[in-house]
Specification:
The complex is a heterodimer of chains A (257) and B (238).
Chain A: H1 2-25, H2 27-52, H3 64-81, H4 84-89, H5 102-131, H6 140-167, H7 171-184, H8 200-203, H9 207-219, H10 230-251
Chain B: E1 2-11, E2 20-29, E3 33-37, H1 44-52, E4 59-64, H2 84-94, H3 99-110, H4 125-137, E5 143-146, H5 154-170, E6 172-177, H6 180-186, E7 189-192, E8 199-201, H7 204-225
Parallel strand pairs in B: 3-6, 3-7, 5-6
Antiparallel strand pairs in B: 1-2, 1-4, 7-8
Helix pairs in contact in B: 2-3, 3-4
Chain lengths: 257, 238
């Protein structure tokens, strides 16, 4: 049993490296875009704040650039995990290898994204926080846990959606719109304390908002999020992962449309 | 140690003329030299996909208690922008083989020592074909799944036929083909994929005769559906 698990981990490792090598194939337009996209978001929000002034200013104690870094990159991690639905819904050439299952492919695909965005986070966060005198983070372990949980949430949502995309491929369009809405409402450019308390109950159901709140809470000693809850995010992640894995297993025999 | 198909039903989708294979029951032992024999578009590729796990059957189960290769000499998973060595390293990682000896064996079998660090897409297709076959042949599978016996250039055919014969002697062999000659050379038993229903044969000669009957029947049907044009293939100009 342990040997089989070890073998499967080796398969995952090999597939993740294979995936990263594949992304480098389109280095100029693909891999570079992975780095540029979050940078555009961060720069865009920073400029918006310049024009709109106080309404987009982060709460006191949080530095402006790092505030956006902590909102943008953890959410990129989560939404890249969501892409697992595409890997599960469409047959891959690697599935011809009897050792490789669609689940391995989805995990390897999203692990490769996790590695990229995790590295990118530190590559951006260290110089930005040094520049803004916000280094070091208050609680590194909590920060990493929040980011990993965000990725797991995205991956689980990807498994759940794979069933829908498999039987009804046009649903990809709706997923795109929903992701946009979810991205906006998950604390990309705001923290919960910037909003009126009357709408908090409607927003705090979203575990991704908890993730961004947790990352900011973990980075800044001066910011204590009034809503962030690890236990809520972990519960959501476990339930969604179990549901996602069940759907993936059930859908294996359902032919793709 | 075998590959077992238990009540397997599978059909193609998104095709103009779907192929359905119903209720396949079969056990292929780890030392068997077995063939899936059928004319083109009879579902041979479908069975190969199901056996190697690329496709789940619509009904029934495929029980694999032996290690099985991917369909050789195909290797659609290669990164063509990488070198032969980098691609061989990927396969070594997947199958937990010692990288250096494995890569050396593959390069030697495929006769690619001088091109080892070349990008795959910069090399002739015969070199790629030798490489992809060697990748699978250098790994210790219980059963090798082969979909093409002609590997590389004409000058390489004899060498790789020898390799295939050796593989068949020390391990099991599953050949998925429409070539009666290959089946007679490498296999002891066969399942003929007749549109009426699959038929198992212990006698390869009888299997090849059955295949020829299917091909003849198909030609007759085609002639009835598309009779030869009396005007010699000339169409009126509207």
């Amino acid at each position: 049993m342990l040997k089989a698990i070890g073998s499967q981990i080796n398969v995952l490792k090999a597939l993740t490296i294979h995936n990263l090598q594949g992304q480098m194939k389109t280095y100029r337009y693909g891999f570079a875009w992975v780095i540029l996209e979050p940078l555009f978001y961060i720069a865009g929000f920073r400029m918006m704040r310049q024009f709109l002034g106080g309404s987009l200013a982060p709460p006191s104690g949080m530095t402006p650039l790092m505030f956006y870094v902590l909102g943008v990159i953890p959410l990129f991690l989560a939404f890249d995990g969501l892409k697992a639905f595409g890997t599960l819904a469409k047959p891959s050439k690697l599935a011809a290898l009897p050792r490789v299952t669609p689940l391995d492919l989805a995990l390897a695909d999203t692990t490769a994204s996790f590695v990229i965005y995790f590295m990118l986070f530190w590559l951006i966060a260290i110089p930005v926080s040094l520049y803004e005198h916000a280094w070091p983070p208050d609680n590194v372990m909590a920060l990493m846990l929040a980011m990993i949980l965000g990725w797991v949430l995205g991956l689980s949502a990807g498994f759940i959606l794979s069933g829908l995309v498999r039987v009804f491929p046009p649903s990809k369009q709706f997923i795109g719109y929903s992701v946009f809405g979810l991205r906006i409402s998950s604390g990309l450019f705001f923290s919960i304390t910037m909003l009126p308390t009357t709408i908090w109950p409607y927003l705090t159901w979203n575990p991704l908002l908890h993730v961004t709140e947790l990352t900011r809470d973990a980075w800044y000693e001066s910011y204590v999020s009034p809503i962030a809850s690890f236990s809520f995010v972990i519960k959501c992640a476990v339930v969604m992962m179990l549901l996602g894995l069940s759907i993936e297993r059930f859908m294996r025999r359902v032919p793709a449309a | 140690m075998s590959i077992e198909l238990r009540n397997v039903t599978v059909r193609t989708r998104n095709t103009l003329s779907p192929i359905t294979l119903s209720n396949l029951n079969l056990q292929i032992g780890a030392r068997d030299r077995f063939a899936f024999l059928g004319p083109p578009k009879s579902g041979v590729e479908l069975v190969v996909s199901v056996i190697c796990g690329a496709m789940a059957p619509d009904e029934g189960r495929v029980i694999r208690t032996s290690s099985l290769s991917w369909p050789l000499p195909s290797a659609p998973f290669l990164h063509k922008h990488l070198t032969f060595v980098a691609n061989a390293r990927f396969v070594a990682r997947i199958y937990e083989a010692d990288e250096r000896p494995f890569i050396n064996r593959v390069l030697e079998m495929a006769d690619l020592q001088e091109m080892a660090e070349e990008r795959v897409d910069h090399c002739p297709s015969s070199a790629v074909s030798r490489f992809t076959f060697a990748l699978g042949a250098c790994l210790p599978f219980d059963i090798y799944l082969v979909i093409k016996t002609k590997v590389g250039d004409k000058s390489d055919h004899e060498k790789f036929a020898g390799v295939l014969t050796d593989l068949g002697k020390r391990s099991g062999l599953i050949l998925a083909t429409s070539s009666t000659k290959d089946v007679a050379e490498y296999c002891d038993s066969a399942l003929v994929l007749d549109p009426v229903g699959p038929v198992y044969y212990d006698d390869i000669e009888a299997a090849t005769e059955h295949l020829q009957r299917i091909i003849k029947r198909r030609e007759e049907t085609d002639e009835m559906e598309f009779p030869e044009d009396e005007s010699g293939g000339q169409f009126d100009d509207f």
